[in-house]
Each structure stands twice: as C-alpha cells, then as structure tokens.
Amino acid sequence: MRKRIGVVAAAGLLMAALLGEAAAAPWERLTPDERQVLKPFEGRWESLPPERQERLRRGAERWRTMTPEEREQARERSRKWRELPREERERIRKRFDEFSKLPPAEQERIRQRYRWFRELPPEERAALREKWRGLGREERRELRDRYRAMTPEQRKDYLKQP
Questions:
Q1: Under a CB-based contact definition with an 8 Å cutoff, are residues 53 and 45 in contact?
Q2: H helices, E strands: number in the chain
Q3: Whose CA is closest to 127, among 136, 112, 116, 117?
Q4: At 39, phi and psi to the nearest 5?
Q5: Which among 9, 92, 99, 104 has the fewest CB atoms less than 10 Å away?
Q6: What is the mean pLDDT of the chain?
Q7: Quick check: 27 and 46 in contact, CB under 8 A?
Q8: 107: Cβ–Cβ under 8 A, 6 or more apart, which residues?
Q9: Is the pTM of this model over 0.70?
Q10: CA 76, CA 81: separation in Å to the nearest integer?
C-alpha cells in the first residue's frame, strides 16, 4: 500500500514538473516561426506569466495559418483598438468579462441576436437604433419584451413606423 502511494506521488510530481516546464517555455525553445511572430515580446518573454505565454503562442499559431487578407484585417482591428480612448477600451473589457460569465446558452442567444441585427438592411438598423435612443429605461425593457414576442413580419412593419 505504501509503495503504491509512493508511486502515485512520484508520478504526480513528475507530471507537475513536466507541465510546469511546458507551461513556461524559454524564448530559445520557441520555434523560429513563433519567435518571428512574437518578436515584440522577446525582451520580456521570460517575465511573462506562463498563461500569457501560452495565449501568445496560440495566437502566433493562428497568425501563421491566416491568409494575407485575414492578417490585414487583424492588423486593422488592432490599429483601431489601440486608437480607442483608454476609457472605451476598459468599458469594452468590462462588458466582455460580464459576457464571459454568462451561461453558454445565454451567450449563444446574444450571438444569434447580434447576427440577426447585423443582417438587417442598414436603413432598418438605423431606424431601430434611433427608436432605441429615444426611449427611457422602463420603455426599453417593455419594448424588448414586446419585440421578442413579434413575428419577423411584425418586426419589419414595426421598424417602418414613423
């Protein structure tokens, strides 16, 4: 029995050591492709937490598999993000954290609603935004409930109302 516990403990320590080694990879252990993509982090790589290093490595792998058009889109999104005021970036991060804490079913419902909204013709999206901006908090809640109960045809008719 003692021997079995000792073997299990030794195996656990070995796994922990191997996982710790894999989680915090020294710069020299990165592949040449990873080092090329992650070059801006070279000077501080060793001081980054292992979780951050792993996220960056996964990002480098995604970058490597992107088409030139996808890379350009990613650069543009990054440029726009950097140009946002600090307060706006913090607001977006906070909302993302709140979204991440929602149950998966609720996250999916929100994603579906977003896709639905993005697929509306620009005039309908603008009309919906304008109506929304003119409402108070309680009116918005009531509208949400009423709108969710409408059929697609009723929604189109509603959006066309002055």
A1: yes
A2: 9, 0
A3: 117
A4: -50, -40
A5: 104
A6: 83
A7: yes
A8: 99
A9: no
A10: 9
Mean pLDDT score, 149-159? 76
Rounded to the nearest 10 degrees, how much is the dihedral formed by the CA atoms of 73, 75, 76, 82?
150
Give per-residue pLDDT as tens, 82-96: 999 999 999 999 999
Q: Are 56 and 48 in contact (CB under 8 A)?
A: yes
- Two tokens at 150? 């409408």
Copy the structure tokens of residue 33: 């492709």
Residue pLDDT, tens place only, 64-117: 999 999 999 999 999 999 999 999 999 999 999 999 998 998 899 889 989 989
Using CA atoms, how far residue 49 sits from 52, 53, 56, in Å, is 5, 6, 11
Identity of residue 93: R
Q: What is the CA radius of gyration of the chain?
A: 25
Which residue is it, tokens 């896709």? Answer: 115
φ, ψ (nearest 5 deg) of residue 153: -65, -45
Tokens 């990002």 identify what position? 59
Residue with tokens 């008719």: 157
Q: How many residues does the chain have?
A: 162
